[in-house]
Design goal:
globular; alpha/beta; 8-stranded mixed sheet; two-stranded antiparallel ribbon
Length: about 270
Amino acid sequence: ATLRRRGALVVEPAVGRLTGVDTGKGRFPDPVELFEVVRRVLARGDLARDLTGRHVVVSAGGTREPLDPVRFLGNRSSGKQGYALARSAAARGARVTLVSANAALPAPAGVDVLPVGTAVQLREAVLKASADADAVVMAAAVADFRPQTYAAGKIKKKDGQEPAPIALVRNPDILAEIAGERPRPGQVVVGFAAETDDVLANGRAKLERKGCDLLVVNEVGERKTFGSEENEAVVLGADGSETPVPYGPKEALADIVWDLVAERLPKNS
């Protein structure tokens, strides 16, 4: 507490195996991830800690909706953009909760990571974590649909027979729910829109439909954005603003998102 009052950035310990059979919070952060936080602090200079005292929630990765014990419906999201957002927020002084859906990435230093699998699990974790959050950034690729029924045993291939159609049901709209029922005044909500065509037109329609403050719109494809270290986007604001982000590292987009969020946060009392 004394160091924080003096302006120091305190990186929280990691969660994992401790001594003996104990697990929990207390591990030294992954050295590579710790280096990344230090690098981000040095890169931003005097602007490094503009999120000090804030709690932010970030979702990342892609949800998986099980069909049977071995198969699922999923998507190509790697979680790299969400992890870049979490890493950047931690370097700017925020307390960060990262809800991670099936991302095989090391935990960013100083970030509390909550692993989830499905869209329903992600909703529960995000709603709980966002109860006292200053900002929520929904960067995860959440499945719109899930199988109506789950097969308890592996679905077998039968000779001479085509597979039965898979009925789907809608998953909850987490972004719209959070934007519409904010648990605290002044909470800033950011969504992501992955589009394959009419990117800006579809993005503006989604921004209005979801009711969030900012929407990061990017074009995706089989070999574009997903799994890449780079991204290109336009950040649309509910106030009519448009902030283009040129092609570059995902951490650059993360910093621009937090710049826009910080502008919209109410001043700390």
